[in-house]
Amino acid sequence: MKNILSLILIFCFTSTFAQEGPISTIKENGKHFKSIEFNVKKNTFYTQIIPQFLGTSLTVEVKNDQSFEGAYILLGGTEKFILNKDDENTSNLQEIAERGYNQSSSLLISKSSFQFFSFYSGKLEGTIRINLLYAKPLKKSYLQDNKKKSSNDCSQQPQSIDQSVWRVGLPDPAPNPSYSQVKHIILHHAAGSNTDTNYVNTVRNYYLFHTQTNGWDDIGYNYLVAPNGDIFDGRQGDSLGDDNVIGAHMCARNTNTMGICLLGNYQNTGYLPTDTAFASINKLIVWKLWKEQLLNPYDSSLHPVANPVMYLGVIAGHRQGCNPGYTSCPGQDYFDLIESRVRAVVAINLANCTPLGVNTISNKDILIYPNPSHGNPINIIAPKKIQQITIYNSMGQLMFTEKYDDYKIEIRDLNDKGFYLFEIKTEKGNYLKKLMIE
């Protein structure tokens, strides 16, 4: 009898004091989304908060004047997540009028479904909002026979996982998407877990986060790439394709862009994008740039959607398209590798899409010979003065760079056999040439 009484007292304690006051439901959408609010005191542990909802992920919202310092959450009472402000999620959130004074955590995705969570408030006090999401988990094996097939042809889209595969059982996106001509490829990171390997469930939860919590028409990115190299088709188009759909991924400046999100967090976490992920990202970019005939990945153009109007690279990190301080995306560790692991490799692969020795911008303006070459010297002739020559090997590594002021240049610094990409800057413009040394 004494033990039964103790259990009753424990139950009453956890039920009555799970939060400072009642849990209020702010918004819900069937089994996929529920937003709740409740009050907390500083430095207080709440053992069991029961939202009457089966969840697979959540975000935490608080007022801008609050601090996440010291706060953490235990999903299902055991899976611990330290709470931190997520700059990108916060910026997106603040574009919603009624929540413009809130800040958000990152999306916390559980390894299994949960019916309750524990919460330690740290420095937080007052009202907090929890946005709960449920994406029924899919087995990894579900994807094995459901990938689009493709060749290595530059004109063919790389192998990918269609929305009808990874989105099964989730609400449909809004119909009638808008389109624009893509002039910029924007690189992102998800700023999520680096250890979760169930990538299809990660994508499913991000889809619900974007459509239910943020209220967007569809997932924000055109494509998502997992560390294992899997490519997920993102925002869904119709007969005009997914690649030209205007997304929601670059500080409300999405026209003329295609967003590619790499799953994981690369903001000073000690993790770097995998070689497999880079290979898939580069294939996507080569295919799209070839399709649009944007054949110089070092080029840039005016992006008129920005205010003020700005030049934006054909390939750019998310932060480069936004106002300073808006976001750190795609993470510093990823951003630092864009030049060598993305732009340079894409340039070489684009050169491989064309016949050997043919300029990817013009067939006649630049002459490089002998090509193929059996050794030094290598001669370059241009109708306008050559200002700079930069040479990369087939791995995208910088081999040579030098400034000039002449119409004819002789290069004697290449000895190893293989393919090389020459970026030649002249008074007339920038050119890409490919050279093979036998």
Keywords:
single chain, 438 residues, alpha+beta, Jelly Rolls, Lysozyme-like, Immunoglobulin-like, six-stranded antiparallel beta sheet, five-stranded mixed beta sheet, 18% helix
Summarize the structure.
The chain is an alpha+beta fold. It is 18% helix and 31% strand. The protein folds into three domains: 2-133, Jelly Rolls, CATH 2.60.120; 140-351, Lysozyme-like (3-Layer(aba) Sandwich), CATH 3.40.80.10; 354-437, Immunoglobulin-like (Sandwich).
Structural commentary:
The chain has helices spanning 2-16, 87-93, 163-166, 199-213, 275-292, 332-335, 338-352, and strands at residues 24-29, 33-40, 45-49, 55-63, 72-75, 79-82, 102-104, 108-114, 117-120, 126-133, 184-189, 223-225, 231-233, 257-262, 300-303, 310-313, 315-317, 367-369, 378-393, 398-411, 418-426, 430-437. It is of the alpha+beta class. It folds into 3 domains: 2-133, Jelly Rolls, CATH 2.60.120; 140-351, 3-Layer(aba) Sandwich (Lysozyme-like), CATH 3.40.80.10; 354-437, Immunoglobulin-like. Strands 1, 2, 4, 7, 8 and 10 form a 6-stranded antiparallel beta sheet that branches. It has a 5-stranded mixed beta sheet with strand order 13-12-14-11-17, with helices on one face. Strands 18, 19, 20, 21 and 22 form a 5-stranded antiparallel beta sheet that branches. β19 and β20 form a beta hairpin. α5 crosses α7. The longest helix has 18 residues, at 275-292. Mean pLDDT is 87; it is low at 4-19 and 355-361.
Q: What is the total number of structural domains?
A: 3
- What's the total number of strands? 22
Order of helices and strands: HEEEEEEHEEEEHEHEEEHEEEHHEEEEE
Strand content range? 25-35%
Number of helices, where a helix is a run of at least 4 consecutive DSSP H or I residues: 7
CATH topological fold name of the largest domain: Lysozyme-like
Mean pLDDT: 87
The stretches of 5 or more residues where confidence is low (pLDDT under 50) are 4-19, 355-361
Task: Choose one word for the global shape.
Answer: elongated
Query: How far is the first residue's CA from the last residue's CA?
Result: 90 Å
| Radius of gyration, CA atoms, in whole angstroms | 26 Å
Major β-sheet profile: 6 strands, antiparallel
Q: What's the level 1 CATH class of the largest domain?
A: Alpha Beta
The CATH superfamily of the largest domain appears as Peptidoglycan recognition protein-like
**Structural category:** alpha+beta
User: Could you say what the CATH architecture of the largest domain is?
Assistant: 3-Layer(aba) Sandwich
- Binned, the helix content reads 10-25%
